[in-house]
From TrEMBL:
Family: Belongs to the sodium:solute symporter (SSF) (TC 2.A.21) family.
Membrane topology field: Multi-pass membrane protein
Protein name as it appears in the record: High affinity choline transporter 1
Subunit and interaction comment: Homooligomerizes at cell surface. Interacts with SEC14L1; may regulate SLC5A7.
GO biological process, one term: neuromuscular synaptic transmission
Catalytic activity from the UniProt record: choline(out) + n Na(+)(out) = choline(in) + n Na(+)(in)
Length: 597
């Protein structure tokens, strides 16, 4: 195995640049929030809530545009049985950002939450918040693992270095600057990384297009030359699967902590919405070079290249079509520059997910569920430890798991089916409670897992209408195996069942307890009868402002070194004046968006 010195130098330069920017951002903002009395732990999680449009737009775009996004898009455009018609990620995630900006960004930011799980714990209690943390954590870890895996594949193709070494070094750099600077380091490095990936790919595309082995991509889009047209098509029997996957990307792309971390760090609710729209545009723009590279791969006579006569799709290397095009269709200096840019940009998503997972654990699990009296310094150290632990978990998964797009869909499944319907309920449906939330969690989990998961070799125990068996080559072992393919949109059906289950069970429980058909003593979750219990809220938390309880009317509380649970959910000092005034007129999550006429 040969080591390409130029490639290693290019990558080293980009990595050092990213590391320098991360450390500089941490140093520049080390005293941010101190003047306003903001906790250091909160500053690490959401900055000083002063992220502007320029940095905010870049960091929100870079969160989605990572290794999985660019490699996966190119892969699906290149694959003969799929093509551009099945490369749903660019439009799916762009629409998810638009919907997030229109409906979710403003209520979340205006209430001053710190993490995505805050409204769940405020309304459903700390135990339910802990349960919802599980799919959220798994989603972040799967996402990080997918993009680190893509990075390893990219480096191994062009530079011929050990995949494991490249993944570990990349992860360590991302973990280091995230440890040092939190969201500020992540946001500022995102600006550099997004610029790198844009320039790196766009420099490579023209050279690949003019390579003698590449035919006119406008011709191969509609005509069969070396393989099926890269524009692709959706067969009639696959229509529901296509719709199911698109809904998964569009709606399942909303309830992610990486998204809400940027929303909650914006300087105002309006800025949070604008950032979402900017990122949606950015996702579409950044997908263009990946689509072109996939089309170039489908239009290439590989027999005329240094790659060899057998095309990548026949070597089960379709998932690496982007680095293969850079390596074999571009001059060496161009391919190395493109590789350096892409590999550096991969970290832009990995660092975000690692920080998001550690933020949710430190705040919603450690602080609010177990150690409400924890000092700010203690929370900061918990965050640092979990950044290292979760980063290590993602790295381990990247080293032992297979295809890029499969991991991407799998991580979205968990979030889409379980968390999205709960987020809809907690923000927009009046009267849901912990009983409905538990039922929704179980409905979504059973219906989704019941459909099976081929990537985990998990057989289905629910056979939805239209199911069939297919012979497929295993993505790791290469052996033929028979799997069950669900042609029914069971992921979306699972999500809808979860949402309806939450509403139905919540109202049923409310009716049974309030009518006396079930004794109040059996309200063991304190979700209906004991509305002001310690599980649902701290003694200083106002669940319903219309039924306001003054602090002086309550039992005195022991002074805390950290913020109170109530202040944790509504940090009024972080909000603009006009937002605070608006909040006075709003009700809690239990009744907001549904004011009585």
């Amino acid at each position: 195995m040969t080591i390409h010195v130029e490639g290693l130098v290019a990558i080293a330069v980009f990595y050092l640049l990213i590391l320098f920017v991360g450390i500089w951002a941490a140093w520049k903002n080390k005293h941010s929030g101190e003047a306003e009395g903001t906790d250091r732990s909160e500053t690490i999680m959401v900055g000083g809530r002063d992220i502007g449009l320029f940095v905010g737009g870049f960091t929100m775009t870079a969160t989605w545009v990572g290794g999985g996004y660019i490699n996966g898009t190119a892969e699906y455009v290149y694959l003969p049985d799929y093509g551009l018609a099945w490369a749903q990620a660019p439009f799916g995630y762009a629409l998810s950002l638009v919907l997030g900006g229109l409906f979710f960004a403003k209520p979340m930011r205006s209430r001053g939450y710190v993490t995505m799980l805050d409204p769940f714990q405020q309304l459903y209690g700390k135990r339910m918040g802990g349960l919802l943390f599980i799919p959220a954590l798994m989603g972040e870890i799967f996402w990080s693992a997918a993009i680190l895996s893509a990075l390893g594949a990219t480096l191994s193709v062009i530079v011929d270095i050990n995949i494991k070494m490249s993944v570990v070094i990349s992860a360590l750099i991302a973990i280091f600057y995230t440890l040092v600077g939190g969201l500020y380091s992540v946001a500022y490095t995102d600006v550099v990384q997004l610029f790198c990936i844009f320039v790196g790919l766009w420099i490579s595309v023209p050279f690949a297009l003019i390579n003698p082995a590449v035919s006119d991509i406008t011709v191969t889009a509609v005509k069969h030359l070396y393989q099926s047209p890269w524009i692709g098509s959706v067969q009639k029997g696959d229509t529901w699967v296509w719709i199911d996957n698109f809904c998964l990307l569009m709606l399942g792309g909303i309830p992610w902590q990486v998204y809400f971390q940027r929303v909650l760090s914006a300087s105002s609710a309006t800025y949070a919405q604008v950032l979402s729209f900017l990122a949606a545009f950015g996702c579409l723009v950044m997908a263009v070079p990946s689509v072109l590279i996939g089309a170039i791969g489908a239009s290439t006579d590989w027999n005329q290249t240094s790659y060899g006569a057998i095309p990548p799709k026949n070597k089960t290397e379709a998932d690496m079509i982007l680095p293969i095009v850079l390596q074999h269709l571009c001059p060496p200096f161009v391919s190395f520059f493109g590789l350096g840019a892409v590999s550096a940009a991969v970290m832009s998503s990995a660092d975000s997910s690692i920080l998001s997972a550690s933020s949710m654990f430190a705040r919603n699990i450690y602080q609010l569920a177990f150690r409400q009296s924890a000092s700010d310094r203690e929370i900061v150290w918990v965050m640092r430890i979990t950044i290292f632990v979760f980063g290590g978990l993602a790295t381990l998964m990247a080293l032992v798991t297979g295809t890029v797009y499969g991991l991407w869909y799998l991580s979205s499944d968990l979030v889409y089916v379980i968390i999205f319907p709960q987020l809809l309920s907690v923000l927009f449906v009046k009267g849901t409670n912990t009983y409905g939330s538990v039922a929704a969690y179980l409905f979504g989990m059973v219906l989704r897992i019941g459909g099976g998961e081929p990537y985990l070799q998990l057989p289905p125990f629910i056979y939805y209408p239209g199911w069939m068996t297919e012979q497929r080559k295993h993505h790791i072992t290469g052996e033929l195996e028979e799997i069950v393919v669900q042609k029914f949109p069971f992921k979306t059906i699972s999500m809808l069942a979860s949402f309806l289950g939450n509403v139905a069970v919540s109202y049923l429980a409310k009716y049974l307890f309030e009518s006396g058909k079930i004794s109040h003593k059996y309200d063991f979750l304190d979700a209906v009868v004991s509305k002001h219990s310690g599980e649902i809220m701290d003694k200083t938390t106002l669940v319903t402002r219309g039924n306001a309880i003054g602090l002086s009317e309550m039992a005195p509380m022991k002074p805390r070194l950290s913020v109170t649970l109530a202040a944790a959910f509504t940090r009024r000092d972080t909000l603009p004046t006009e937002t605070v005034e608006e909040e006075e007129e709003e009700s809690s999550p239990d009744s907001s968006h549904h004011e009585e006429e």
